[in-house]
Amino acid sequence: MSSPIQRAVRLSLCGLLVVLFSAAALADSSHERTQFGHDISVGPGEEAGEVTCFGCSVRIRGHVTGDVTTFGGSVILEDNADIAGDLSTFGGNVRIDGSAKVNGDLSVFGGRIHRDPGSTVGGDVTNLGGRFWIVLIFGLPFVVLGAFIALIIWLVRMITRPRIPAAA
Fold first, then answer.
1. Is 0.90 topped by the overall pTM?
2. Based on the domain organization, do 76 and 14 belong to the same domain?
């Protein structure tokens, strides 16, 4: 006969094993790739789900079933690459070679698009190129915040300043 503590430990271990195997099974079936600072590559004949990259670049030679998004990195679609969803990059360039396809929208903020004539984009193409947009998007909120803080400091000084009566 086992004690209640031994049963609780066994149940906890079994539950932990179930959670670990479930997480491993879901991770293998989703094929999603997310990286911070490490480039992502989808090779020829390879399939990936959603691809998201922060501070890194993406090179696609295979098939992506979802969207591709980069922040501070570029995207290169080599010949015969295929993206079923949208392609968005913020602060990076997009190069589409040969007969590569983007079935959704293509959006580039603060970068450039280099497209081969044989490539296909199924949706809208939006390009807000140049560093001006990045400065505007990141800089403007800091300018407004700085002005707001300066206004508060000025108001506090006006309220706490000693008043000198006017000479009669």
1. no
2. no
Residue 138 lies in a domain: no
Model confidence pLDDT, tens digit, residues 12-32 = 445 444 444 444 444 444 588
Contacts of 77 (CB under 8 A, 6+ apart): 60, 83, 87, 94, 95, 96, 97, 100, 102, 119
Q: How far apart are CA 168 and CA 166, in angstroms?
A: 6
Contact 67, 85 (CB under 8 A): yes
State whether 95 and 19 are in the same domain: no
- Can you say how many angstroms the Cα of residue 38 is from the centroid of all Cα atoms in its chain? 13
CA 28 vs CA 12, 24, 32, 120, 124: distances in Å: 24, 6, 9, 30, 32
CB 135 within 8 A of CB 157: no
Residue 161 falls inside a structural domain: no
| Model pLDDT for residues 114-168, shown as the tens digit of each residue | 999 999 999 999 888 766 766 777 788 888 999 999 999 999 988 888 777 777 6
